[in-house]
Predict the structure.
Amino acid sequence: MIPAEHVLLLALLQFAVGLMGVLLRRAAMVVLVSAVVMLNGVLLAFCATTSFTGSSTQAEGVVVLALVLTAALSGAAVIYAFFRFRRTVCVDEYDRMKH
Amino acid sequence: MGPIFFWLLGAISLGAAFVAVAHRRPQRSTQGLVALMMTNAVILFLLHAPLLAIELLVVTIGAVLVVWMVLVRPGRQKLGAPGRTRYNVTKFIAFFVALWLLAVIGLTIFATAQPPAEVPAGQAATGGFGAVMSVFLLGVATVTASVIVMVQRRDAGRADEGQGEIN
């Protein structure tokens, strides 16, 4: 039996690594990948809490996973559209909403 | 034994997360993400969440396909590597849709495999909900693949107008 604290610690570490990538990287695809890493940590923490408390089933986890996939696909589509428009993948150049 | 195996997988997943975040090449970042998701799927199996693990594995396979089509093949074509100069979109879509249909069928079998008398309260609804979510994911994947194909065909048409037939 794996202690719940261990799983939550691993989820926290994954979330921290993903957050570091979101804050520090400039390439849009890597920022998206880092966000997915963060959501993977959230999914792991969610599964840990639901499996150890026994209060819920895996349905909510499936919803979280569907949200991860939807966010990744829509983010990739937005990045591809911006790349076709601005010819760059640097997120610092994505300032069209300011003007 | 359980915690040792868990932390072994955890170390692999953390290393994959670092590769995904810190590597300079986007291909390596995406490969690190795929490794992270696969190790997370094994961890979910350890946590007695097989439905989530199967879904995560299916998502991983889809990510590998998208990376191969969007990043790897265009890069190889630009470098002049041997191979076809056009995407074989029909096979790609057929494989993608077949994969998600297999996921839906597998999840439905997984949901209905247990006899109703032994299913705890709420368990049957979970499997059915997983099948519904798989259908939703199939729709998302199909729409995404269709958009990619339309964009690629339009780009190929523009390239043909500017440079003539590639083949």
